[in-house]
């Protein structure tokens, strides 16, 4: 076997075939034997090989020690250029074969020409999409030359004569199919057809060779995109339905907003193809999220929701059957279970309800999908998958899209691949793309997770169909995200009564001349003999008849039922339950002791090295267990552990939630010597328990809270908790709180049991680490401050049933324990907003006895004065109402002033719904005392604005002679949640504490 002296020649395995064709077959074995060491992606995909690294090290020591080709490569920033000459180092023995002799110069030239062709192929793979014909309106085509795009032949030293020659195809392309050689002109034509046609493929940013090769084969193999006659007929039928529905709505209700799909009707057959292919590959459940545009068409033609249920939404005389605000028709969701006619398999499709915050539903869909996968044991997403649709402007402009993408591969959040479809209208309301994004494509954000992106001209249905087919296969093969950028247009304005000519006159002149995609495709099939005029008319009339029949049935509807629009109905959850039945939340002492013992024991593995600090915490917990006492962390673990032992799945997520931001939880114990070795005590309570999931989230609030909302929507018999690192950070997730948590039931009949832990408390830590903005949550609560309710046996449950969300600020571990357990045992579901403490986590007074958590005990909505003041209520001069940790500061100040018998302090633990009955009892009890509200927050913040009118309402219903206004004690109004100076913080606190105990004020 001969040795090759020129490593530049050996660096690319396919070069052996070039040398062999030039009369040097004896070189082939040497080079191919190095194929694994010098991989084909060394030069082509930007990853280094063993040989490249060796050559680079030698070059760094002495540039003259390597061949000129390597010197040129490294000197030019790792960009290959043919060296001036390689003849000095090329030593190729003369072949003894009968082939015609070839000179060294001819061999050298042949190699360089092959390399130039390879560089050309690579250029089209990387940049060809930039020259693809994507715009049906042809507004932006032809603005960039091939030279600017790096695709001009002269850039590769390829002349017209070179295109007449045959070239051996490199292994990094499938453009030849079964052919080993192709003429240069044919290679160029095929590359242009593949990469610069009506599909633009972006995939060369993916750093995985197997995935790149897979995509190349799917798009480069000759003839692979051809559709059968039956596929073409099916595609036409689906287009007829997509366009027919929009025409029907436009004709019947021309002045109604519906956010139609005109200009991108091909979305409907595309989605159906995704579902068909995925169903064939084993998926039976699809969770779908989308904005308003095209929603009614998707519901009708993809989900096959009964047309009468959709059409009746247009009839203004039909009233809702249930209470609540309801929502506009293009925000509503649905759930259907039907047979897929292409695969004859049952499929479930849920389209999630979504507000006008267009991308807010994205993380919700992902959370819902993850939950479905969890409950079905679908660990690879083979059965359940998500599909997300986007507008181009929102996809580029909404930061939650980026946040959601970054959940895609996180162990506790992945859904094993999502298919994203961008309905690209090339405009955002009235904003041109050049004003709405800085990137060439609206989809560039998807590159951060190495997702392939298929840009498709929406006027070419067969190309759209193929891209959707490959997207479904990609997701099934690699369990990774993929994006389809469907480039079309918007035939009308932002809504049907908007005038787009005001702002985009040139675009809409083009659009007004544009033939619809259905008409174009139908004419194409007529011209090619695939369908006849009679078949076309029959298909159109068939669907028109279906629409008219749906309209007749819609007129028979007497009321709109919100249950028809639920995206995930909870089967059997509400059956046989009395909504007024107050749940029992206490448990037996032995269970409490067992949980406390397990969670405070080190891992049973003797080789597991626990941090000394954790060992001390565990010992402290065991000491509390012996004393039958719990601090905040243990109270939480007792609540969660008991639910787990009763079979309820618990999921807790947030930034640093495993340990707890304030290092109090330590729900995951890490081995100090072994990576990825950890122990979760709450998953070792007994053999029959449910699973406890605790996870540190990405540094996101918006997407992560949305994810947990979706997770909580799926199964009511689970406890889902999101914890903010600091309560203040929830403001970044305010959209999810406003749109899904506080108003979701009213708008969409969507009950939700999610729990929010929001660390809250004025600790002198500055503006951003003090307030969870309690006032905002209370302002969103829907109870009436001026209405004193009827106090009877059902009062407590009636309040909880009618409130839109529950807001608590607990001061004891026992109350924390009960309110968490109550969340599961309520016969309905309401969001729970908990002002979680910081200093109380370790406060010596914030302790609870196990006796406060055993059977017969319950959550205390208000904890009254339990000290000396309650022994002689008539002598009490001040009654202080408060909530949260300020209670302990008030107790300390009262003791310092020896006023235990003169000042009573009552803690309101459940702020909303307001405990009118218990507050009334306290006011009547201390009939001579002045009533004050004390808070540590500023006057325009905290609970005061919520508390004041309700206390006034209570006072009007008391037996007290003095029914005057309640006095406020606390910090004055301020713009900032807290001061940033520790001394100033203490001075402010001392002032209001002193004021609270002035009896002669």
From TrEMBL:
Compartment annotation: Mitochondrion
Domain Transketolase-like pyrimidine-binding: 630-843
Keyword Metal-binding in record: yes
Main location: mitochondrion
Pfam families in alphabetical order: 2-oxogl_dehyd_N, E1_dh, OxoGdeHyase_C, Transket_pyr
Keyword entries, A-Z: Glycolysis, Magnesium, Metal-binding, Mitochondrion, Oxidoreductase, Thiamine pyrophosphate, Transit peptide
Names of the cofactor(s): thiamine diphosphate; Mg(2+)
GO biological process: glycolytic process; tricarboxylic acid cycle
CDD domains assigned: TPP_E1_OGDC_like
InterPro entries, per database record: 2-oxogl_dehyd_N (IPR032106), 2oxoglutarate_DH_E1 (IPR011603), DH_E1 (IPR001017), KGD_C_sf (IPR042179), ODO-1/KGD_C (IPR031717), THDP-binding (IPR029061), Transketolase-like_Pyr-bd (IPR005475)
SUPFAM superfamilies for the chain: Thiamin diphosphate-binding fold (THDP-binding)
GO molecular function: metal ion binding; oxoglutarate dehydrogenase (succinyl-transferring) activity; thiamine pyrophosphate binding
Domain of life the protein comes from: Eukaryota
Enzyme Commission number: 1.2.4.2
Record bears the keyword DNA repair: no
GO CC, alphabetical: mitochondrion; oxoglutarate dehydrogenase complex
Function description: The 2-oxoglutarate dehydrogenase complex catalyzes the overall conversion of 2-oxoglutarate to succinyl-CoA and CO(2). It contains multiple copies of three enzymatic components: 2-oxoglutarate dehydrogenase (E1), dihydrolipoamide succinyltransferase (E2) and lipoamide dehydrogenase (E3).
Family: Belongs to the alpha-ketoglutarate dehydrogenase family.
UniProt-listed NCBIfam families: 2oxo_dh_E1, PRK09404.1, PRK12270.1
Identification of the protein by name: 2-oxoglutarate dehydrogenase, mitochondrial
The organism of origin for this protein: Lingula anatina
């Amino acid at each position: 076997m001969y040795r090759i002296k020129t490593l530049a020649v050996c660096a690319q395995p396919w070069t052996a075939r070039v040398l062999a064709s030039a009369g040097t077959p004896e070189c082939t074995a040497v080079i191919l034997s190095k194929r694994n060491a010098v991989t084909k992606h060394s030069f082509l995909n930007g990853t280094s090989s063993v040989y490249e690294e060796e050559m680079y090290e030698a070059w760094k020591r002495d540039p003259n020690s390597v061949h000129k080709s390597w010197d040129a490569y490294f000197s030019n920033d790792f960009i290959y250029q043919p060296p001036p000459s390689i003849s000095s180092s090329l030593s190729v023995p003369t072949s003894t074969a009968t082939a015609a002799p070839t000179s060294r110069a001819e061999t050298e030239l042949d190699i360089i020409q092959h390399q130039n062709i390879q560089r050309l192929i690579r250029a089209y793979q990387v940049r060809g999409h930039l020259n693809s014909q994507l715009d049906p309106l042809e507004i932006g085509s032809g603005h960039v030359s091939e030279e600017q795009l790096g695709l001009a032949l002269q850039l590769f030293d390829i002349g017209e004569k070179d295109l007449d020659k045959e070239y051996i195809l490199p292994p990094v392309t499938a453009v030849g199919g079964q052919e080993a050689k192709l003429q240069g002109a044919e290679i160029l034509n095929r590359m242009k057809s593949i990469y610069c046609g009506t599909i633009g493929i972006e995939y060369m940013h993916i750093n995985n060779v197997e995935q790149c090769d897979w995509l190349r084969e799917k798009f480069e193999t000759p003839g692979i995109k051809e559709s059968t006659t039956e596929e073409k007929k099916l595609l036409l039928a689906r287009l007829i339905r997509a366009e027919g529905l929009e025409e029907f709505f436009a004709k019947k209700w021309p002045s109604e907003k519906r956010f139609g799909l005109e200009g991108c009707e091909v979305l409907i057959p595309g989605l159906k193809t995704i579902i068909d292919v995925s169903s064939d590959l084993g998926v039976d459940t699809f969770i779908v999220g989308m904005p308003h545009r095209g929603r009614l068409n998707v519901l009708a033609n993809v989900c096959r929701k009964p047309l009468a249920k959709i059409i009746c939404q247009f009839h203004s005389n039909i009233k809702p059957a249930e209470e609540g605000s309801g929502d506009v028709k293009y925000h509503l969701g649905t759930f259907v279970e039907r047979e897929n006619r292409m695969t004859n398999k049952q499929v479930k499709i849920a389209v999630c309800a979504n507000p006008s915050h267009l991308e807010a539903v994205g993380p919700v869909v992902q959370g819902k999908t993850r939950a479905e996968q969890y409950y079905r044991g679908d660990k690879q997403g083979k059965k359940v998958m998500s599909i997300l649709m986007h507008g181009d402007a929102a996809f580029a402009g909404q930061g939650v899209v980026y946040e959601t993408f970054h959940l895609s591969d996180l162990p506790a959040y992945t859904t094993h691949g999502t298919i994203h479809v961008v309905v690209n209208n090339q405009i955002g309301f009235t904003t041109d793309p050049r004003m709405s994004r800085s990137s060439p494509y609206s989809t560039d954000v998807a590159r951060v997770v190495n997702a392939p992106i298929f840009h498709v001209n929406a006027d070419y249905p067969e190309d759209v169909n193929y891209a959707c087919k490959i997207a479904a296969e990609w997701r099934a093969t690699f369990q990774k995200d993929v994006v389809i950028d469907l480039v079309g247009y918007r035939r009308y304005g932002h809504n049907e009564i908007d005038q787009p000519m005001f702002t985009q006159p040139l675009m809409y002149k083009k659009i007004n001349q544009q033939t619809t995609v259905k008409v174009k495709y139908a004419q194409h099939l007529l011209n090619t003999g695939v369908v006849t005029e009679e078949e076309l008319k029959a298909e159109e009339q068939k669907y028109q008849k279906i629409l008219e029949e749906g309209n007749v049935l819609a007129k028979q509807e007497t009321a709109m039922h919100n249950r028809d629009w639920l995206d995930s109905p909870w089967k059997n959850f509400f059956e046989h339950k009395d909504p007024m039945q107050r749940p029992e939340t206490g448990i037996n002492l032995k269970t409490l002791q067992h949980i406390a013992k397990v969670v405070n024991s080190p891992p049973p593995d003797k080789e597991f090295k626990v941090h000394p600090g954790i060992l001390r915490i565990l010992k402290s917990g065991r000491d509390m267990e012996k004393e039958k006492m719990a601090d905040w962390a243990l109270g939480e673990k007792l609540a969660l552990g008991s639910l787990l032992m009763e079979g309820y799945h618990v999921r807790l997520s947030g930034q640093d939630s495993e340990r707890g931001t304030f290092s109090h939880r330590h729900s995951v114990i890490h081995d100090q010597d072994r990576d990825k070795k950890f122990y979760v005590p709450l998953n070792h309570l007994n053999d029959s328990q449910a699973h406890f999931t605790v996870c540190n989230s990405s540094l996101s609030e918006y997407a992560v809270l949305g994810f947990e909302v979706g997770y909580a929507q799926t199964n009511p018999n689970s406890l889902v908790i999101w914890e903010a690192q600091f309560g203040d950070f929830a403001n970044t997730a305010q959209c999810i709180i406003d749109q899904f948590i506080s108003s979701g039931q009213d708008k969409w009949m969507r009950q939700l049991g999610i729990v929010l832990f929001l660390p809250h408390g004025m600790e002198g830590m500055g503006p951003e680490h003090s307030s969870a903005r309690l006032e905002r949550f209370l302002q969103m609560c829907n109870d009436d401050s001026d209405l004193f309710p009827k106090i009877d046996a059902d009062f407590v449950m009636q309040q909880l049933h009618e409130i839109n969300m529950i807001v608590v600020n607990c001061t004891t571990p026992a109350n924390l324990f009960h309110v968490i357990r109550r969340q599961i045992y309520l016969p309905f579901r309401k969001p729970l907003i908990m002002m979680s403490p910081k200093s109380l986590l370790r406060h010596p007074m914030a302790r609870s006895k196990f006796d406060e958590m055993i059977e017969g005990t319950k959550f205390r909505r208000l904890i009254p004065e339990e000290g000396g003041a309650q022994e002689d209520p008539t002598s009490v001069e001040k009654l202080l109402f408060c909530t949260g940790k300020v209670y302990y500061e008030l107790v300390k100040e009262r003791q310092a002033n020896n006023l235990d018998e003169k000042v009573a302090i009552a803690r309101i633990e459940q702020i909303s719904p307001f405990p009118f009955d218990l507050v009334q009892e306290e006011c009547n009890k201390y009939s001579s005392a002045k009533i004050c509200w004390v808070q540590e927050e500023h006057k325009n913040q905290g609970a005061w604005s919520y508390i004041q009118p309700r206390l006034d309402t209570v006072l009007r219903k008391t037996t007290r002679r003095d029914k005057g206004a309640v006095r406020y004690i606390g910090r004055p109004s301020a713009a900032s949640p807290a001061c940033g100076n520790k001394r100033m913080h203490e001075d402010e606190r001392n002032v209001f504490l002193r004021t609270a105990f002035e009896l002669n004020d």
